[in-house]
Amino acid sequence: MRPGAAHRCNMKKPNLSAVAPAPAGYAAAADLLRVFCVFMIAWFHIWQQSWLSPVLRVGGLTLNMTSPVRAGYMFVDLMLLLSGFLCYLPYANDRAPAPRDFYLRRALRILPSYWLCLAVMLAFALAQPDLAVGRLMKDLAAHLTFTHNLFEFSYTQSKLNVVLWTLAVEVQFYLLLPALAPVFKRQPVACYLAMTGAALCFRSLWTAPMPDTTLFINRLPNMLDVYANGMLAAHLYVLLARQEKHRALIATLGTLACVAGAWGIFRIVRAQSFISGYEPLRHGQLDHRWLFSACGAAFLLGGSLSFSPVRRLCSNQVVRFLSGLSFNFYIWHQWLAVRLKAWRIPPYLAESNPNQAGEMPWQLQYTLLCFAAALALSALITYLVEKPSAKRGRGWIEKLVKRDR
Question: How far is CA 346 from CA 54, 116, 183, 315, 354, in A?
């Protein structure tokens, strides 16, 4: 669900007060959280290719981003948290869509861009020498059925696009949501505890004892508490946004929760960044998952209930524009970064791996080009493919609804 959609449907005369009530159908901090998470994930993937030191110096100021960049993969959990929040928000607002409408709208949101991405990846994979066509077709079939996070050949060894595993988890969650959300609405505490307990048990009893957790760390059962934190945050947000009294107190507590959530996020990624070794890294991510997503929920909930200037900082024209591009930016940035390096764009002097040679100014030029190219490509796909397809698809949905009536 696009954060701004519900907001536009409930436009009222603007209240310029610093403690103006937050619209229950629109969470301002969702825009900023989405943009920031996608940016940090992209920075992590581009840094893996460039090895450019993530220390920014502007005049006499130094901003050391080493820890959040080195642990940038952690922010995927916050993207899933945000999905749980936004998908449950209509249910919390007593505007539950029919299951068919929910599935159709989700399909319109992701499938056009996803299919285009797979088509391009498939074309490049078919052009590779010594290609195992049978294995590639299995890889493609797993991606088309959103089961590619379940198999090694389509997850860690995919010839398509390795970042697409998140969509497998998302679609698997979408399948559950129309049945899960009404139960959560009626019994939020019991349902939250059940989802969180299931995730903690699955992690501690099944995933953590494995000698190699690679294929299991990012499966839906391990993510249920992340989604539960998002759904609970949406439930609380609607209850508090509808409160007519104590607006100043709610805004004050919301701002404090926002700051505390941001502080917790960076403390956790800092701790995670000092862990070395693939298996310890995965165990660290599993151990931090509930608390990390809870800090994200605090930021999302608090920021969306905070004082009006804070909410405007979280959601303004620039942030909303970037938020609208985030899906396509996410699914293309890593593949594009790898291709640019392989194509020697920009050119480098080393025979290969200019990052290992510490080749400057290539590292900086390459990093900036990766961000700029991914942004330009995501804008093109969003406005030439995603939005037109969604608009046409919504027309089909309206015709189906009228015909059924």
Answer: 19, 26, 53, 34, 11
Considering Cα of 322, then 326, then 328, then 330, what sign does the dihedral take?
positive
For residues 234 and 278, the answer to whether their CB atoms sit within 8 Å is: no
State the DSSP string of 178-195: HHHHHHHHH-HHHHHHHH
> Is 380 a domain residue?
yes
153 within some domain? no
Quote the number of domains for the chain.
Answer: 1
pLDDT at 22: 77
Long-range contacts of 47-53 (CB under 8 A, 24+ apart): 47/72, 47/367, 49/337, 49/338, 49/341, 49/355, 49/366, 49/370, 50/355, 50/363, 50/366, 50/367, 50/370, 51/355, 51/356, 51/358, 51/363, 52/355, 52/363, 52/364, 52/366, 52/367
Tokens encoding 265: 């996020």
Longest dimension (CA), the chain: 68
Q: Residue 337 and residue 373: Cα distance in Å, rounded?
A: 9
Answer yes or no: is 275 within a domain.
yes
Handedness of CA 357, 360, 364, 365 (dihedral sign): negative
pLDDT in tens, 180-214: 999 999 999 999 999 999 999 999 999 999 999 99
Of 1-15, 84-98, 128-142, 326-340, minimum mean pLDDT range: 1-15
Q: Domain of 333? A: 3-12+26-108+162-404
Residue 135 lies in a domain: no
Transcribe 47-107 into DSSP letters. HHHH----EEEETTEEEE-HHHHHTGGGHHHHHHHHHHHHHHHHHHTT-PPPHHHHHHHHH
